[in-house]
Write a structure and sequence with these properties.
429 residues, Rossmann fold, UDP-N-acetylmuramoyl-L-alanine:D-glutamate ligase, Protein-Tyrosine Phosphatase, Chain A, 3 domains, six-stranded parallel sheet, six-stranded mixed sheet, 20 strands
């Protein structure tokens, strides 16, 4: 078999290892010429601009997740590691998608099922590449898979349990339109069987649209009676009270939704109340997702660097009742900031908004349109100066929330670097 590896980052290298072990004749394609030294000795490669436009003579062209299938011109079959994993995986898969909350929800599902005694493999953007784990999975295990629109673009097999969280505009610099973004995500449901399960957000129209494309006879809404929901400070599923809201270790209303989605998904495997209770008590969140960093001089600092879309920042704002100094802005992907501006203006606890990065003027313009003036456009890109200004504004009882609502690429390599720098600076106060 002749296989083209299209894109040779972390996932592409995993793809190479997998198909190389199968004895495939491999050639590597990547537009980034800087990866030349990473290519194994003796392996053919073609690097530089436009190399994906003419990949001919291969049985499979295995794309990296972020590479749009429409950007590949080939006479072979376009494939992905996600497609290969779903085709070969012997265990049932719980797949989770949405614009935000995927990682948290997946981690909670995995924690519940592990507490119940299952062997669980947590895959996607959270862990190691899926194909590297495939040899270690047995049919009695359970896979929990975080699925982005990039992984779902051309997926040909849907998970047995699909979870669709809140969907909002995102990745519009990569997807041709919001419709393409939603339809890519719809592959999580489109190829299900009628005995499969789909769990979806109770109010989001895009999630409902995706659910409608599933042939499943078992459709459940979390935060509603058909799934886990909240009644009088208790989290209930079916007729069972599984936990008190006060026991939850996560901050924010959006995380209560994520918890209910996770319980609804895990409940398909009868984990029992004790496993659920332990998971939601002990789980305090993933790094860079509204992560508590420290309290200094009576002020609490939160790192929400994973926030790369306006809706995530809006959710962060709604998570606090204390006065907020919000640091917001970043790489401009052409997203709409009008709803975020409205959320900020309507929040009675916004003490100050500090705008940074490429989007600072765009967000400021949205504030001006609705006559919100309690913001400052910062001209510096020095992160320590930005955070120090927030510190100087804050008084005891306030929270400083770094929730950019934008990608990181104007000032940082990725959201992880951005969040780690925020934490290092705050820890150094």
């Amino acid at each position: 078999m002749k296989v083209a590896i299209a894109g040779y980052g972390v996932e592409g290298q995993s793809n190479y290892r997998y198909w190389s072990a199968l004895g495939a004749d491999i050639k590597i394609f990547d537009e980034n010429t800087d990866i030349a030294n990473d290519i194994p000795n003796g392996v053919q490669s073609e690097l530089g601009d436009g190399v994906f436009q003419n990949i001919s003579g291969f049985d499979l062209v295995v794309r990296t997740a972020s590479l749009n299938p429409s950007h590949i011109h080939t006479d072979g079959k376009i494939w992905s590691s996600t497609n290969e994993f779903f085709k070969q995986c012997p265990a049932p898969i719980i797949g989770v998608t949405g614009t935000k909350g995927k990682g948290t929800t997946c981690s909670l599902i995995a924690a519940i099922l592990k507490n119940a005694g299952h062997t669980v493999h947590l895959l996607g953007n959270i862990g190691v590449p899926a194909l590297d784990i495939l040899p270690y999975i047995s049919e009695d295990d359970i896979v929990v898979f975080e699925l982005s629109s990039f992984q779902l673009w051309d997926l040909e097999k849907s998970p047995q349990t699909a979870v669709v969280l809140m969907i909002e505009a995102d990745h519009q610099d990569v997807h041709a339109s919001m419709e393409e973004y939603v339809q890519a995500k719809a592959n999580i449901a489109r190829h299900q069987d009628d005995d499969d399960v789909i769990i979806y957000h109770p109010e989001n129209t895009f999630a409902a649209e995706i659910s409608s494309q599933s042939p499943s006879r078992h459709k459940k809404q979390y935060m509603k009676l058909s799934g886990a929901h909240i009644v009088a400070n208790q989290i209930i599923i079916g007729d069972v009270a599984v936990a008190e809201v006060d026991e939850v270790g996560l901050v924010g209303e959006h995380n209560l939704q994520n918890i209910c989605a996770a319980i609804t998904a895990a409940w398909q495997y009868d984990p029992g109340v004790t496993a659920v209770q332990r998971a939601i008590r002990e789980f305090t969140g993933l790094p860079h997702r509204l992560e508590f960093v420290r309290e200094k001089d009576g002020v609490k600092y939160y790192n929400d660097s994973y926030s790369s879309a306006p809706g995530a920042t809006a959710a962060a704002i709604k998570s606090f009742t204390q006065p907020i100094i919000l640091i917001c802005g970043g790489f401009d992907r052409g997203l709409d900031y009008s709803q975020l501006a409205t959320t900020v203006a309507e929040a009675s606890n916004i003490k100050k908004v500090l705008l940074i990065g490429q989007t600072k003027q765009r967000v400021a313009d949205e504030f001006t349109k609705i006559s919100f003036t309690n913001f400052e456009i910062l001209q510096t890109d020095k992160f320590i100066d930005i955070i120090s200004l927030a510190r100087s504004i804050a008084t005891p009882g306030d929270v400083v929330v770094f929730s950019p609502g934008c990608a990181s690429f104007d000032m940082f390599k990725n959201f992880q670097e951005r969040g780690e720098q925020f934490k290092q600076i705050v820890q150094g106060f």
